[in-house]
Amino acid sequence: MSSHIDARVLVLNRNYQPVAITGVERAFGLLYAGAARALDEAFNSFDYESWAQLRADLGEDVIHTPAVALKIPRVVVLQAYDRIPRVHVRFSRQNIYLRDQFTCQYCTKRFPRQQLNLDHVVPRSQGGRTTWENIVCSCVKCNLKKGGRTPDEANMRLLKIPKRPSWSSLTPFMGKVPYKEWLPFLDPVTASYWNTELESE
Predict the structure, then answer these.
(1) 18-32, 41-55, 73-87, 178-192: the lowest-pLDDT one
(2) Which of 87, 114, 167, 191 is the most exposed place for a label (fewest CB within 10 A)?
(3) What is the mean pLDDT of residues 23-52?
(4) CA separation for the pair 171, 173 (Å, rounded)
(5) Is 187 helix (H, G, I), strand (E, B) or coil?
(6) What digits encode the pLDDT tens for the residues 5-17?
(7) Where on the phi/psi map is residue 149: left (φ > 0), alpha (ψ -120 to 50), or beta?
(8) Of the candidates 73, 87, 86, 81, the residue with the CA atom closest to the CA atom of residue 12
(9) Does the reported pTM lie above 0.70?
(10) If you ran DSSP here, which 8-state letter would residue 165 be given?
(11) Got the DSSP string for 116-140?
């Protein structure tokens, strides 16, 4: 298959609600097994055989196998899965950055993502847990200054008390949707699948 193997495909349950984002290879596996059907921009539904017959010689969204050129589906619908997606905000590094607006919670300066760390407000060495209420963004300088101390012990002040965010508080800071075909199906729940969940303790 071509370099487009790294493209992403939105997965819907049979009620057309987004439940995951997967890779092209997995999406074609679902189509080929009959576990999913592909949707085009007009919401027409295709099984693997009918999708393989679509013209794939135009445009860039194509993968090539030894036997055939296949158009990449941007959306697939599972045929026997009707679970409702989770509605809580996933505890992830990206969502912490979004909650704190990429701002160090000690010096109050905004930084590029690469220059931010995650800090335990109450250090783990003092029993601090890895939770929404104990993790904040901090810049490298402030993180080193605070070390293994609490903000009070380090004579540092938090910009705001950390807490679990709501989707409404994160939505304005979320990135651009990568494919226009996803737009009719997206709601704030979908963004939870863009991030790897952190392990809480």
Answers:
(1) 178-192
(2) 114
(3) 93
(4) 5
(5) coil
(6) 567 898 898 888 8
(7) beta
(8) 81
(9) no
(10) P
(11) EEEEESS-GGGT--SSGGGEEEEEH
CA dihedral 90, 95, 100, 105 (to 10 degrees): 80
Alpha-helix runs per DSSP H in the chain: 24-32, 48-52, 93-99, 140-146, 167-170
Structure tokens at 88: 């809580």
Q: Distance (Å, rounded) from C-alpha 147 to C-alpha 129?
A: 16
**What's the CA gap between 194 and 165, in Å, rounded?**
16
Q: What is the pLDDT of residue 195?
A: 42
- Which amino acid type is present at position 138? S
Phi/psi for 133 (5° steps) reads -80, -5
Q: Which residue has the tokens 């539904």?
A: 45
Contacts 24+ apart (CB under 8 A), 62-69: 62/2, 62/4, 63/1, 63/2, 63/4, 63/5, 63/24, 64/1, 64/2, 65/1
Three-state secondary structure call for residue 106: coil
**Greatest Cα-to-Cα distance within the chain, rounded to the nearest angstrom:** 67
Domains in the chain: ranges and CATH: 3-78 (no CATH), 93-146 (1.10.30.50)
Provide the pLDDT confidence category of residue 48 given band limits of 50, 70 and 90. Answer: very high
Calpha distance 181→175 (Å, rounded): 16
DSSP 8-state class, residue 77: E
Nearest Cα to Cα of residue 120 among 112, 111, 132: 132
